[in-house]
């Protein structure tokens, strides 16, 4: 994307952050969680562009969240920016270590192995007294560069923080997709031998994608823990990863912004379904997923890409 487009998107993000101060108090936390999950979905899309589906992204989501809780409890850290950085880096380290194993597998084996790693962490969390067992750990309200935010101002500050992370993540992934490593995602699906003949290592490329996805997911988990003010082993459970896959299908791979629009739509649909028809809300989500696959196979990102391409073609 051109530099002026990123600047205009940055201005739009800033305006949305300012407008967040006038949103209903109940809507800000939900939007923050949705955008935090959108970061994890963006990591899923990085993998999906190379034909890789992970059922274990909850490993990094919980890793980032627990890093925040443990840093507060045992290190006495309170700054939100520092806590999110620690959660992101720790999740990235998890992904780096796991990547040595995951990079050797493809298809269903990659998916199931990632799921197994996530469930191992879930078992550790739910049985460890130090990590709070099934009750989890509480997370205190953070400060922002030394300033304390109270009541609704705290929700707005987290909303502004996640918007900034969304903008930076979108730029970083878009830049990555334009590099040689990113542009080889498509050929990896078709024929990895062709990539090897070009002098690139398919295993190293997959390893890099696993780390990028882990960093993004860890950042999402860290911000979510600050918003919910609590972490528990369910954050590492396979259903969390399943939710990310649902939104990734809804978002598609054609645009980085699709991940965040899809996450917001998913959260809005789930909240509405729970409020209106709590007995069949899972069915409603299933129907939405089915309709997306049937009628919008490229997802929201595909619609955004088509609109942008059409606008570009309309220029004289």
Describe the protein in words.
- This protein is mainly alpha-helical and 316 residues long.
- The protein contains 14 helices and four strands.
- The chain has a two-stranded antiparallel ribbon with strand order 1-4. Strands 2-3 form a two-stranded antiparallel ribbon.
- It starts with a helix and ends with a helix.
Summarize the structure.
The protein contains 14 helices and four strands. The chain is mainly alpha-helical.
Describe the structure using short key phrases:
single chain; 316 residues; two-stranded antiparallel ribbon; 74% helix; disordered C terminus
The DSSP helix count reads: 14
Mean pLDDT: 87
> Strand percentage, roughly?
under 5%
What topology, given as strand order, has the largest sheet? Answer: 1-4
Distance between the termini: 19 Å
Low-confidence stretches: 309-316
Note the overall shape.
Answer: globular
Largest sheet: 2 strands, antiparallel
> What pattern of helices and strands is seen along the backbone?
HHHHHEEEHHHHHEHHHH
Quickly give the structural class.
Answer: mainly alpha
Total strand segments: 4
Q: Approximately how much helix is present in the residues?
A: over 70%
């Amino acid at each position: 994307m051109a530099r002026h487009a990123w600047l205009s998107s940055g201005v739009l993000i800033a305006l949305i952050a300012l407008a967040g101060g006038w949103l209903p108090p109940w809507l800000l936390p939900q939007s923050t969680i949705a955008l935090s999950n959108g970061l994890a979905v963006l990591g899923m899309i990085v993998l999906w562009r190379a034909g890789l589906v992970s059922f274990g992204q909850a490993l990094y989501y919980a890793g980032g969240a627990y890093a925040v809780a443990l840093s507060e409890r045992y290190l006495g850290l309170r700054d939100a920016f520092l806590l999110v950085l620690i959660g992101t880096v720790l999740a990235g380290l998890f992904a780096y270590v796991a990547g040595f194993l995951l990079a050797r597998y493809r298809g269903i084996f990659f998916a199931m192995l990632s799921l197994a790693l996530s469930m191992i962490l879930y078992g550790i969390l739910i049985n460890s007294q130090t990590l709070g067992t099934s009750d989890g750990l509480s997370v205190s309200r953070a400060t922002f560069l030394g300033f304390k935010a109270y009541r609704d101002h705290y929700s707005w500050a987290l909303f502004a923080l996640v918007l900034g992370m969304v903008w930076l993540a979108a730029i970083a992934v878009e830049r990555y997709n334009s590099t040689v490593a990113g542009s080889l995602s498509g050929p990896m699906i078709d024929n990895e031998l062709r990539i090897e003949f070009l002098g690139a290592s398919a295993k190293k490329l997959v390893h890099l994608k696993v780390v990028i996805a882990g960093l993004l997911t860890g950042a999402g988990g860290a911000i979510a823990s600050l918003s919910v003010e609590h972490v528990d082993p369910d954050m590492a459970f396979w259903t969390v990863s399943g939710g990310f896959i649902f939104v990734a299908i809804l978002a598609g791979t054609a645009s980085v912004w699709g991940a965040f629009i899809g996450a917001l739509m998913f959260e809005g649909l789930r909240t509405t379904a729970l409020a209106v028809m709590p007995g069949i809300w899972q069915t409603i989500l299933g129907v939405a997923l089915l309709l997306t696959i049937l009628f919008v196979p490229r997802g929201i990102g595909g619609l955004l890409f088509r609109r942008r391409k059409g606008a570009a073609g309309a220029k004289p």
